[in-house]
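User: I'm putting together a teaching handout on how sequence relates to shape, and I'd like one worked example. Could you take Probable membrane transporter protein from Allopusillimonas soli, show the sequence you're using, and then write out its predicted structure as tokens right after it?

Assistant: Happy to. First the sequence, then the structure tokens directly below it.
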Amino acid sequence: MEWYWLVLGALASGALIGFTGGVLGIGGGLLAIPLLGLVLGMDQQLAQGTALIMVLPAVLQTIRKYNQNAHIDFHSAAAGAAGSIVFTWVGARVALGLDPAMLRNIYALFVLLIAVFYFHQSLRGSRPGRPQKPRREASAFHKGWFVLLGMLAGITGGIFGVGGSVITVPILTTFFRLSQTGAQAVALTMITPGIFVALFTYAAHGEADWLLGVPLAIGSIFFVPYGVRLAYALPEPRLKLLFACMLVVIMVLLLVSV
């Protein structure tokens, strides 16, 4: 395939992935990784490193749009970021030493567990007459909780390249009782420094394709705002159901690409 067709395809794919990431608050990386493996035959580590090139600017753009809609508690997010940085590096080093097929299967199982959780949450939230617990703000909690949450996000994001926000958003919505969009905003802000660390670690080991990653990033940042706008327009149970369905699609793509 000629390089310019590859770049054009990456731009178009980045636009779709950026829109999806804006809706779901995951930066699009979860979708990009299996697509890179399925379409281009990349091994899991190279797909994760390449996806990080796209994820970083898309996440920054998503955070900016979320903050415009509802101000993010940056103090809580900074506490989480402090916990995530070292653990992201540890997770990335672990991932780089694993067999690619094993890492992909572990990733698929991880995605399936999160999808099951979100299906459960969406069904509970859509039951008529069910009393809804009042939502809380991140500032209501001690910052130490966010440091621990950042550690969990860091090790997850380091091993899988992305996914730190996917594991923290359910915790923030269920135990901290943040709104879905509020949780997505705090989680993405929390993991941003870790994304820098993960990208540097993967790239230093030659596991990042910049020719593909840069046009993916360019395509994604233009469509992130439209995805964020849709996220705020959707009812929360429907947003959770959409998230769960997308995770199932991702899991199938991962298994197909083995």
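A couple of points you could highlight for students: The mean pLDDT is 84. Residues 3-256 form one domain.
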